Amino acid sequence: MSKRINLDHLGVQGPRFYVTLGWVGLLLLIGAACALVMEHEGHVVTGMNNQVIWGTPHVFAVFLIVAASGALNVASISSVFGKQMYKPLAPLSTVVSAALLVGGLAVLVLDLGRPDRLTVAMTHYNFKSIFAWNIYLYTGFLLIILAYLWMMMERRMQPHAHGAGVVALLWRLALTTGTGSIFGFVIARQAYDAAVMAPMFIVFSFAYGLAAFNLVVMGIYTWTDRDLGRFVTYRMRSMLRLFVGASAYFTALYHLTNLYATEHHAWERFVLMDGGPYTTLFWVGQVAIGYLAPLILLFHPGTRDSYAVIAASSLLVIAGGMSQMYVTIVGGQAFPLVLFPGMEVSSGFYDGVVAAYAPSAWEVGLGLLGVGVAIVIILLSAKTLRVVPDNLADRFLDPDYDKTQAELAEERELAQMG
Amino acid sequence: MTASNRKPHDPGRRRLLTGALAAAASVIAPGILLVAPRPAAGRAPGEPVTDRVRWGLLIDTTRCEAGCDHCITACRTEHDWDNAPHSRPDQQAQWIRKLDVHNPETGYTFSLPMMCQHCENPPCADVCPTGASFRRADGIVLVDKHICIGCRYCMIACPYKARSFVHETIGGQKPYSPRGKGTVESCTLCVHRVDAGRLPACVEACTEKAGGAMVFGDLNDPGSEISRTVSRIATTQVRADLGLDPGVLYHGF
Amino acid sequence: MMRLTGGLLLVGLALGAVPVSAGDGVPLPTPARGKGTQCVEPTDTMRRYHMDYLLHQRDETVHRGIRGTKYALKDCVECHATPDPRPEVRALTLYGFCKECHDYAAVSIDCFGCHTPVSASSEGGSQ
Fold this sequence. Notes:
- The structure holds three protein chains of three kinds.
- By secondary structure, chain A is an all-alpha fold.
- Chain A contains 15 helices and three strands.
- Chain A is about 70% helix and about 0% strand.
- In chain A, helix 7 crosses helix 8 (about 195-225) and helix 10 crosses helix 11 (about 275-300).
- The mean pLDDT of chain A is about 90.
- Chain C contains four helices and two strands; from the N terminus they run H-H-H-E-E-H.
- Chains in contact: A-B, A-C, B-C.
- At the A-B interface, helix 5, helix 6 and strand 2 of A face strand 2, helix 6, helix 7 and strand 6 of B.
- Strand 2 (about 345) of chain A pairs antiparallel with strand 2 of chain B.
């Protein structure tokens, strides 16, 4: 039994590791093949069209990028807000964050009409564009969190880790604001014309990122049979409850504000009532699976203490998050543009009607490529860097551990005496 | 497509006919019109465009018949934008389309061509990360396909759905209208014709073959036909509330 | 990107300029010249700098509307179009003129994904 918490490698050796890596590698290969087909044939092989312009790849990409920011929660809380119990997990949190970001960016870049022109994107900038800003925000974020990781892991640099943590926190708030603003600043579309999009995306990022991080931690600890204490697990559970609740609050706020503005009634009617798949995804996916189910499971005394329930809730939050992205991104475009408010418009080119969109296998494959990239980065980083705490036992993390144990012992003694 | 649909607003139409447009009315002498509204002489070789000119388009919906698509045909022929054999209908490019608008309160119905509105403050250019979408000094909004990376954010941002993405490899482009897979495109206001002192293909077709509902010209030149007309009759811009100040003006609704 | 390919081409041409006897490696390109007798600049200059001229002109034309100057891709096509070497294409194209040198220099050009390589004088002929 170890005497304290040490940072360690992943701790999975030989075939067990490489078989897992192989499975994820297969996912990568399939994804890469899909990307190649899309690049070669063009977007004609996707469900995307001139009405629904961004599709499934963007659902994956935006989700991963938003979650990347949130995955840094644990590191931020430890470095910036000085919560010692999160300190052992801070490096892993940074790794997960970087991995999700790279995965998301890979999808975004490979979906471009001309991915071969990435150099153009790096040499021509229009600084009025939030997209151009995001290119800096994303690459800058990556550099900052890598520096941050280094400062946490290199003993000599540890005094600077707090500063780097503050920079990383501020930067990631800017990053999620930027990602949310991609949608928030579009005046043309009923769904996107709301400044609340930016703070809402920040809160979403907290929830999605934490859920992903939870799964990584619980996955690694189960896989390597390490001691994952209740103290830290229940802390994560509390955070997840808070962020899911806040996400639900912002979602309600967004829709209620829209309902107040007559101009947006048609869009709200579409999402909330008669948008077909988008309405279903909103109520069943985003609200029931993404908010209600995890909140009930994580609050109910009968379920909240089970590790399996906490892991399942994290999965539900991710499923809800993907639904939310689909409703926001695809639903927001499927809803027709309002060219003549109050009028009925028709044309030979899909005006005034809900646009159809069905994802093709190629674009789903491309999206999964991003997930695969993230997992491979996490696996390889954890294999080669000491980022996994060798245990997260309560006796090292819970400041009241001795007291609680003493009380328990006393109770036992009393019971025996009785 | 009925006669009542076509001319729901007779007074306006009559007023227009007595105006400068009357001289150009294609009904009487289409031949004359070919000579009359020249936008300007083409610029000399090597001369850049300036902001002294702002190209604009006036569309009189009272003369635009529902079901008439001469402008679309002319545009398609000029730029050959429907040559993507594998693309689904909703993936096809559509540089210009006809909208039929019906006011359910009053019953008023009108038809109009919708294309790039060549905004003074184009949101497509604002959101473009590389600067590929831009507004030329003379007001024509274009895509520089050399630096377009195909992110399609401009299409998300355009309130008019005026832009198209080329979904597959295409061939047989016109020498003056290069376009290709993976880039975004839209109405160029026939920049190649305008630079040579000619009218956009849609305007020419509408004048020669249809109701003569389109007037093209320099909004900055008080003497131009378009300037004289818009100073006399009520015009509006589609989604004027967005403050984008489109260069395409409409009359009749 | 064009600058990069331009640089590569320069290297390729510099290598090509070294006298090579027959049978030594890859044979020198001998592109069909079309009807061009004298280009807008001396041939050596064009060989080295055509990509720079085109890149410069493309920005000038697209963004500033400058037309009718001497460096125009359309004019390249008009002068240098030759019967396309591919049997399925019956038209005068720039394919033969560009391809041979660029293949030799291992440079892939990005012009004709959008611009037509077909000469207007091969009316009726299509790709």
